[in-house]
Specification:
Layout: H1 3-50, H2 54-82, H3 84-102, H4 108-136, H5 142-171, H6 173-178, H7 183-193, H8 198-212, H9 225-232, H10 234-268, H11 273-301, H12 303-324, H13 330-353, H14 358-371, H15 373-389, H16 392-413
Helix pairs in contact: 1-2, 1-4, 1-5, 2-3, 2-4, 2-14, 2-15, 3-4, 3-7, 4-14, 5-11, 5-13, 9-14, 10-14, 10-15, 10-16, 11-12, 11-13, 12-13, 12-16, 15-16
Length: about 425
């Protein structure tokens, strides 16, 4: 075989591999997103069967967010320590089995503890999939691929809506969780066919050389070793802190709006439940489009510009919805909002992973993003407090302020493509 033919064969093999990785990761995030929504749709049934108060029912969401945050931090560490593919596989197995076991629970505490354990896998999977994908996709269309990958969550929301409508009325909430065992098959297939990315293999080889050279004087790294390395490096430390702040404000706005927008439409705007459901599907569909087009745009004009445009556009548009909505224009306002609302998440994964070098990437991205989940935990309660003092609309204006800060921080301080995974 001549040199040109060999090069063509290698290129084809690489393309086939990253396309396969994309399919697996997309399905993984789809299942991740669907899993989150399954709890929302089953809350009414859980309250009735277990006799839960509103506080207890709401706390199940807090257990979920806490598990996701811890899982995301340790998932990032596991990516660097054991490998991206292994972490994806074990994350899918953990949340699939954990979610299926929810169908066997018979009390609040059984459900809450099992949900917390399963959520460790949900948080770890998000970090692992994005890190793995960023190291496989060629630089020139990395954000297009990762932006489309983020749409997996939104597709998962729609899948969960369809499953809930089909299973809940006939079979009850337990079967809604039993079907979560199916993704274990995906994990087994992935482990067999997807190799670890070359960037991770190179980073492991570098660590091995350092140990042999006596730079590291211990036989194995402690769990906090990666984070010590991050904070020992001035550039990595700065990026970590900036991304933790950005992720905190992003998730404060995102989860605050996600939790309260349906209630705002129904209770304060008087939209009927059947129409509200259609409005939210329209919003999610526009969000999918926003994520995909954000990826395409970011590969052409830069990650920073597109991320800032989406965050600042969302910040401006939330007050527009609150102050200028009417029965005639609310649907179109929500569609435009959904499009803008999806843009930061379409760029976020690529932008973050390119801010850290390969040997620290999983731990840095997992740590910064999941420290930011504190914002996700605070937001629903913050809007609830503001609603009790005035209206949900006031809370949505506060979410707009969070999105504004989320856009300004990277626009001023975080450069594009600081570390290209394809060149490490």
């Amino acid at each position: 075989m001549d040199t040109a033919a060999q090069a063509s064969a290698i290129t084809h093999a690489k393309t086939s591999t990253w396309v396969l990785v994309f399919i697996f990761c997309f399905l993984g995030l789809l299942i991740d997103g669907a899993d989150l929504m399954l709890l929302s749709y089953s809350l009414g049934s859980l309250k009735a069967e277990f006799g839960l108060s509103n506080v207890e029912a709401g706390s199940l969401g807090s257990f979920t967010l806490a598990g996701m945050a811890i899982g995301g931090i340790y998932g990032g560490w596991a990516c660097d320590r054991f490998g991206r593919v292994k972490t994806v596989v074990w994350s899918i197995a953990l949340f699939s089995l954990g979610t299926a076991i929810l169908g066997l629970t018979h009390s609040y505490w059984q459900f809450a503890i099992t949900r917390f354990i399963a959520s460790l896998g949900i948080g770890a999977l998000y970090v692992a999939c994005n890190t793995l994908m960023s190291e496989y996709v060629p630089t020139r269309y990395r954000t297009t691929a990762l932006g489309t990958l983020q749409a997996g969550w939104s597709v998962g929301y729609i899948v969960a809506t369809l499953l809930a409508g089909w299973i809940l009325p006939t079979h009850g909430w337990r079967w809604l969780f039993y079907i979560a065992i199916i993704p274990v098959v995906l994990a087994l297939v992935m482990q067999r066919f997807v190799p670890e990315p070359q960037a991770w293999i190179n980073a492991q080889a570098e660590r091995a050389r350092n140990r042999l050279a006596g730079i590291q004087h211990r036989s194995g790294e402690k769990r906090d070793g990666m984070f010590k390395q991050i904070f020992a490096d001035p550039q990595a430390r700065r990026m970590f802190m900036l991304w933790a702040l950005t992720a905190g404000f992003l998730q404060f706005g995102y989860y605050g709006v996600s939790n309260w927008m349906p209630t705002y439409l129904e209770s304060e705007l008087g939209v009927k439940f059947s129409a509200m459901t259609g409005y939210m599907v329209g919003t999610y569909t526009a969000m999918i489009l926003g994520k995909v087009l954000a990826g395409l745009a970011a590969d052409r004009i830069g990650r920073r510009a597109v991320f800032a445009f989406g965050a600042l556009g969302t910040a401006v548009f939330l007050p527009v919805i609150v102050l200028f909505q009417s029965p005639e224009n609310i649907l179109w306002l929500l569609v435009i909002f959904g499009f803008l609302y999806g843009i930061p998440y379409g760029v976020n994964a690529t932008y973050m992973t390119e801010s850290f070098e390969a040997k620290l990437r999983g731990s840095a991205v997992g740590g910064a993003y999941n420290i930011g989940r504190l914002g996700a935990a605070v937001a629903p309660a913050a809007i609830g407090f503001l609603a009790s003092q005035g209206s949900i609309g006031v809370g949505l204006l506060v979410m707009g302020a969070a999105y504004f800060i989320c856009g300004v921080i990277p626009a001023l301080f975080i450069k594009d493509k600081q570390f290209d995974p394809q060149r490490q």
